[in-house]
TrEMBL record:
SUPFAM superfamilies: FMN-linked oxidoreductases. It comes from Spongiibacter thalassae. The active site is at C97. This is tRNA-dihydrouridine(20/20a) synthase. Keywords: Flavoprotein, FMN, NADP, Oxidoreductase, RNA-binding, tRNA processing, tRNA-binding. The record marks N94, K180, R183, R296, R299 as: Interacts with tRNA. Pfam families: Dus. Belongs to the dus family. The gene is dusA. Residues 12-320 form the DUS-like FMN-binding domain. It catalyses: 5,6-dihydrouridine(20a) in tRNA + NAD(+) = uridine(20a) in tRNA + NADH + H(+); 5,6-dihydrouridine(20) in tRNA + NAD(+) = uridine(20) in tRNA + NADH + H(+); 5,6-dihydrouridine(20) in tRNA + NADP(+) = uridine(20) in tRNA + NADPH + H(+); 5,6-dihydrouridine(20a) in tRNA + NADP(+) = uridine(20a) in tRNA + NADPH + H(+).
Length: 341
């Protein structure tokens, strides 16, 4: 069911409290082609809560996928139809989150113990005929050992018509480890994900987990169809500026960090006019200048000033001036040293 116009060679992971619509607009200034994923939205929140708050997004975010949490086929069908109505490009079913809250709602990683139910959910969602349906999952949970349980899980998804899996190459321990520990402690097993691609050659396999650089993402493409990065992109977002060239072979010079900030101004002005606080947008931009002169002052100025009611693009421009001034001083110093030699 994977569609040729949704090129998942590079994806940015769904991240709770981070990959919201403001963050995705910011990321889109850096890459036009990476597939972006929303935070996980539960079917209950979507069907009984504020749909506009959960589903609104900007046209610039395409290609963008909605990640759903749920295990009731009927509810997932309704949510999938809503995703199509709102214009999303894909729906992704979360079978990888190990948190207690998610387990109590009977979705996330615990669903790997019920491949039959997940297959029923996927088939029902696909039967809507609206959007590609993908599944994000782990290589196993708890006491599942070896490759067999993973192969059987993906085999049932394939039989249900699922064309794409996104595989976090770690097991999830549903008891005894926090979600943060589950991202770090279980050992990575990339070869197991590579084996999936060999055993299911017509299925699109995207690898996730422990990938911290674009060059590493590229290296996985010799074994699988796509790579997904999460926290490393959030913490060092300027990496995304490499994606269109290195992964999608698009010619051109990426925008500078300063250009990226100023490209956000029209969006920020629009959002401020609708009551959004500047902080809700700029909190996602704090890592943009990591490693650059003036980065600390940039972060501090926004942290101290962006949350006030009157904060606007002038606040962001003032923060930006710390970086521009520090860069100028650094260049002048380098020129002086060069002249002395």
């Amino acid at each position: 069911m994977a569609t040729p116009d949704l090129d998942r060679r590079f994806c940015v992971a769904p991240m709770l409290d981070w990959s919201d619509r403001h963050c995705r607009v910011f990321w889109r200034q850096l890459s036009r082609h990476a597939v972006l994923y929303t935070e996980m939205v539960t079917t209950g929140a979507l069907l009984h809560g504020d749909q506009h708050r959960h589903l609104q997004f900007s046209d610039i975010e395409h290609p963008v996928a909605l990640q759903l949490g749920g295990s009731d086929p009927a509810a997932l069908v309704q949510a999938t139809k809503l995703a199509a109505e709102w214009g999303y490009d894909e729906v992704n079913l979360n079978c990888g989150c190990p948190s207690d809250r998610v387990q109590n709602g009977f979705f996330g990683a615990c669903l790997m113990a019920r491949p039959d139910l997940v297959a029923d959910c996927v088939k029902a969602m696909l039967d809507t005929g609206t959007l590609p349906i993908t599944v994000k999952h782990r290589i196993g949970i708890d006491d599942q050992e070896g490759y067999g349980p993973l192969r059987d899980f993906v085999g049932q998804l394939a039989d249900a018509g699922c064309g794409t899996v996104i595989v976090h190459a770690r097991k999830a321990w549903l008891q005894g480890l926090s979600p943060k520990e589950n991202r770090e402690i279980p050992p990575l097993n990339y070869p197991m994900v590579y084996q999936l691609k060999r055993d299911f050659p017509t299925m699109e396999v995207v690898i996730n987990g422990g990938i911290n650089a674009i060059d590493d993402a590229v290296s996985h493409l010799s074994q699988v169809d796509g790579s997904m990065l999460g926290r490393s992109i959030y913490q060092n977002p300027y990496q995304l500026a490499e994606v269109d060239n290195k992964i999608y072979q698009q010619a051109g010079t990426p925008p500078s960090r300063v250009e990226v900030v100023r490209r956000m101004y029209p969006y920020i002005e629009q959002e401020l006019g609708q009551g959004t606080r500047l902080h809700h947008i700029t909190r996602h931009m704090l890592g943009l200048f990591n490693g650059c002169p003036g980065a600390r002052q940039f972060r501090r100025h926004l942290s101290e000033n962006a949350n006030t009611a009157e904060a606007g693009t002038d606040t962001l421009e003032a923060a930006l001036n710390y970086v521009v001034s520090a860069q100028q001083r650094s260049e002048e110093y380098q020129q002086q040293r060069a002249a002395q030699h």
